Amino acid sequence: MHVIHLSVECFPLAKVGGLADVVGALPRYQRKLGLDAWVVCPFFDKAFTKERVFGTIHQGSFMQGNEKLDYEVLKEESDPLGFPLYLIRIPGKLDREEVYCYPDEAEQWIAFQHAFLHWITAAQIVPDVVNCHDHHVGLIPFLMKHAVDFNHLSSVKTLFTIHNGQYQGWMPWSKGILLPAFDTWRWGLLDWDGLINPFAAAVKCCDAFSTVSGGYLQELYRDANGLEDLIQSESQKGYGIVNGIDDEYWNPEIDTLIAKQYKKSAVKSGKKSNKKEFCEEAGLDANVLLLAFIGRFAIEKGADLLPHIIENIFSNSDYKVSIFILGSGDDAVQAGIAELLDRYPGQLATFFGYNETLAHRVYAAADLLLMPSRVEPCGLNQLYAMKYGTIPIVRGIGGLKDTVIDVEEEGGYGFVFSDADSQCAAEAVLRALEVTADPNALQKIRQREMSLDFSWDKSAKEYIQLYDQL
Prior knowledge:
Belongs to the glycosyltransferase 1 family. Bacterial/plant glycogen synthase subfamily. Residues 2-232 form the Starch synthase catalytic domain. The protein has helices at residues 18-23, 26-32, 47-51, 105-122, 140-146, 198-205, 214-220, 228-233, 267-282, 306-316, 331-341, 356-365, 381-387, 398-403, 422-436, 439-450, 456-469, and strands at 2-6, 36-42, 54-64, 67-76, 85-89, 129-133, 157-162, 191-192, 195-196, 208-211, 238-240, 289-297, 321-329, 348-352, 368-371, 391-395, 415-417. It is globular, with a radius of gyration of 23 Å. By secondary structure, it is α/β, with parallel strands linked by helices.
């Protein structure tokens, strides 16, 4: 079976969030199971593309409104990712340094989708399934069925994988002229509340849609940023498949980015060594419990709660604790955290920005990881943490609820709280500090969580079963 994954992010080509980690790992695990999986992404002017050798396998052009766009399809020649990677480059549109933040994103993603369909049509490539990841490529199921030049692909099955339903790619109908010519009688499939909504169009037109956890699928029926009725009406097409992690990259036994590699049997000494080196560099006390936050400073991640949580912990805890924050995003959140650095020297340290290597070191060093998310379709950070013997403290929503069981329940290995507010989160942290202050309890929880299997092996099989079903 031939499956093409279509996405605007893929690690290590271009990463902003968990979408990149999924697309950079899932196809490799699928290929191990015998699936002919490809990945097609936009070209980005980043280190990965500068350091690798790409060959041009196709060139073409098409009209986007009144503008003629030339494109080329590049294929990475050494196959370092474990799957064929194809990049579409369009001068002036798909050749930029950043993934997002440009005012003409709608034009970029329309061009990407049009070029993809133009290429596979010209090259007579007919996959069995096109797996579209998030709204950036949400027009594909519609265009394959109803665009004049591409409806020969209408028999190709489409799976729309929802990584985050809060972002839907809305654009005014004035952008409609930029789309490939389509059956205008079908315009309603593109529309939602008077706008072109690629996310809604994908749900309407795909053969199936999946979410990155079963819990998130249930949440979308209640909160889908205005599309609740649509998700409910199309529920027979919905499937929840929890994300996995790439245990060839996130694995303390073989991780070359951390100070000392360690197995589950040596987690106590391994984490102690990593913690000692990390805390010396961060200016923190390695002899107390270390709590970490890793992620974007975004409202959906609950990052705005962090300053209040930090103050609450330091002012109310009977247990000594250090806190390390790794992230970037909202300026107000960053400023609020920065203000606390002078008040809690030696207790609080930060790195404002994105640093993949540092993230590995934090997971290896930290005792606890906090995720006070308002929205978390799956969450990968808690899975990485548990792989490294770091205990997650999470709000019980979406994929966090699916993957973390509270220690007060049978077989539990984390700390779960219910409300997205600083008081509730701080209370969960204080509860975790009380429990893990006992070295025996800490070791028992670490052993339990590190025995869990959250690799992509199981999830890749579930995706393949869904493809087969389609």
